[in-house]
């Protein structure tokens, strides 16, 4: 996993041992998304995805201390199974918006690497101050551990075979 930052952008990349179509599916299907999104120890409820331009992605991420972090974004672009672009909810109160920061654009690309997928999560913040606030609120470590949770999810699916 690599993470780079500029004054208004954060880019995180990770290679997954899963084919691109599967990575796309678990990112765009609420059944799967609810089971891996968020850092270790968090639990998600109320997950919904309207996979269309202008459609919403939302879930409530529950921290181990019981605090709820709503995550909501609007799809700006969808090119299955290659690319998703979200705009974070501009009314979100938390600086990193549970992964979709307010007034930020998040672009996820899914690149084939043989039987693996190179996932790139690029976030462009409205200002350098918003990036700094999100970083201080745990945006980078939150996404790095979330992508670890996604890798663990793929392993658990291979061993348990409970994919609907």
From TrEMBL:
Residue ranges of domain Activator of Hsp90 ATPase homologue 1/2-like C-terminal in the record: 17-154
Annotated InterPro entries: ASHA1/2-like_C (IPR013538), START-like_dom_sf (IPR023393)
Pfam families for this protein: AHSA1
Source superkingdom: Bacteria
Family: Belongs to the AHA1 family.
Protein name: SRPBCC domain-containing protein
Source organism (scientific name): Thiothrix winogradskyi
């Amino acid at each position: 996993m690599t993470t780079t930052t500029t004054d208004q952008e954060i880019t995180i990349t990770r290679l997954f041992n899963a084919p691109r179509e599967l990575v796309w599916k678990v990112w765009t299907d609420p059944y799967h998304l609810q089971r891996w999104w968020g850092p270790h120890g968090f639990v998600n409820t109320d997950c919904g995805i309207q996979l269309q331009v202008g459609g919403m992605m939302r879930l409530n991420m529950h921290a181990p201390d019981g605090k709820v972090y709503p995550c909501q974004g609007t799809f700006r672009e969808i090119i299955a199974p290659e690319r998703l672009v979200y705009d974070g909810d501009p009314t979100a109160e938390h600086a990193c918006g549970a992964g979709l920061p307010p007034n930020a654009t998040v672009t996820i690309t899914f690149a084939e690497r043989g039987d693996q997928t190179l996932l790139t999560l690029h976030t462009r913040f409205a200002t350098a101050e918003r990036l700094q606030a999100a970083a201080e609120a745990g945006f980078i470590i939150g996404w790095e551990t979330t992508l670890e949770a996604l890798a663990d999810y793929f392993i658990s699916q291979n061993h348990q075979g409970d994919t609907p």
